[in-house]
Amino acid sequence: MRVTRWVSVAVAGALALGMTACAGQGAPQETAAGGGGPVTLQFWHGMTGPDGPAVQQVIDDFNASQKDVVIKPNIMPWDQLYQKLLTSVTSDDGPQIIAMDASRVPQYASKGALASTEDFFAGTTYLDTSVLPTAAVGASKFNGTNYGIPFNLAPMMLYYNKDLFKAAGLDPEKPPTTWDEFTAMAGKLTVDKNNDGKPEQYAIALADHETVPMYQPFMWNNGGGVVSADAKTSTLADPASLQALDFWTRQVREQKVSPIGLSGADADKLFQTGKAAMEIVGPWMTNGFTEAGIDFGLARPFAGPTGQDTLMNVVSFTLNAKITDAQRKAAYTFFGYWNSVDSQITWADGSGFPPTRTDVPADKLKNKFSAMFGAKDLLDNSQVYLAGVPNAGTITDDVFYPALQRVLNGKGTLEEVFTKAAKDVQAQIDKG
Q: Which of these, 318, 322, 337, 345, lies nearest to 70 by C-alpha position?
């Protein structure tokens, strides 16, 4: 299932309101173990698609494996989950465990709504966390403290249409590996039969709004980015960032390698209908493209002048700040089980997503796409966008993408537009 808004819009005001609210959501309180019974934990998550049964299978396996902890899932669409969470996370009948996109963690952690999970990583009681990808672990940090445990991760890969590569006289087993190679191939893969300036086929479907961050990794691979590594300074107007943006906006505007104005869903459709030769997207599209009859290959996104880091989305297990010690221990037991080798094989085979750990042998996975998205070199070179930034949603949706669209549509020079945008990004960082 495509993530159409990668990071959230700001909800700080609503959350602050929720901190004083006590309206319950009807979720039963956990059963304490004081009477000798198991600790029962309410777990909210939004895996409502084909990945849902795989989550449930691991939960069922866990509940059947021991008698001390019972996990009771409450499943709802992500947007509903976040709306309900604003009040229920601070009430007495709220969930003990909440799955959430890591980009949302700072918004809740900054208001004291989440409990720290630092002690989970302090030893090996529940899991040897060294097997977890560094980017996935760091995704849920805020002000140096971790508030989450990896639940699901999705690195981006380059999908390419082998039939369109063949038709263009290109080797279908050799997609572009660098920006220069992309440029050389793009001219052959962009087809304007009647020379009207509107290609019938594009080299790539490159979304510029309502999508996972597409342009941001281009900046990483040129030594730039949107914010500094410590998440305190805007770097959007740095020369390396502007150079990367200039290269790719020129590719779209002048070389017409992609249409302007694509949403993420639009980009998926363009590739799925054979009108684009390439797309950078996550593992959730493998089934859709396969069912559409596209003969596609997968590869790491092409490297820039200074690197080949790719984007990773992370969903984290988080804990209600009101969690008790007994509940915390019970939750950690479940998190360790979820991230075990056997459970991750069950999860990957059932969902198509990669395992959350880097040491699951590829030959143990039935789904070939899970193995490809879980390749160690891919995971080791993945980054999480705007990790630890409370106003990540506002920065992306209200600053970055509007600026990008102005440049693509010729409404201002790149330097002037993104210099202004960089100041707006800094304002959001300073707001915290």
A: 337
The answer to whether the beta carbons of residues 120 and 97 sit under 8 Å apart is: no
Strand partners, 131: none
For the chain, the domains span 12-154+314-374, 157-311+390-431
* DSSP E strands, 214-309: 278-281, 296-299
Q: Is the dihedral of CA 420, 426, 428, 431 positive or negative?
A: negative
What confidence tens digit (pLDDT) does each residue in 72-93 have? 999 999 989 988 887 887 777 8
Q: Encode pLDDT of 25-52 as tens digits.
A: 333 344 444 457 899 999 999 999 888 9
- 112: nearest Cα among 143, 79, 150: 143
Length of the chain: 432
CATH architecture type of domain 12-154+314-374: 3-Layer(aba) Sandwich (3.40)
Interatomic CA distance for residues 344 and 349, integer angstroms:
8
Yes or no: say if 359 and 130 are a contact pair by the CB < 8 Å rule: no
Note the pTM of the prediction, 2 decimals.
0.86
CATH architecture of 157-311+390-431: 3-Layer(aba) Sandwich (3.40)
Please, are residues 263 and 249 in contact by the beta-carbon 8 Å criterion? no
What mean pLDDT comes out for the span 398-422? Answer: 97
Of 64-68, 388-392, 418-422, the least confident: 388-392
Q: How many CB atoms lie within 10 A of CB 142?
A: 21
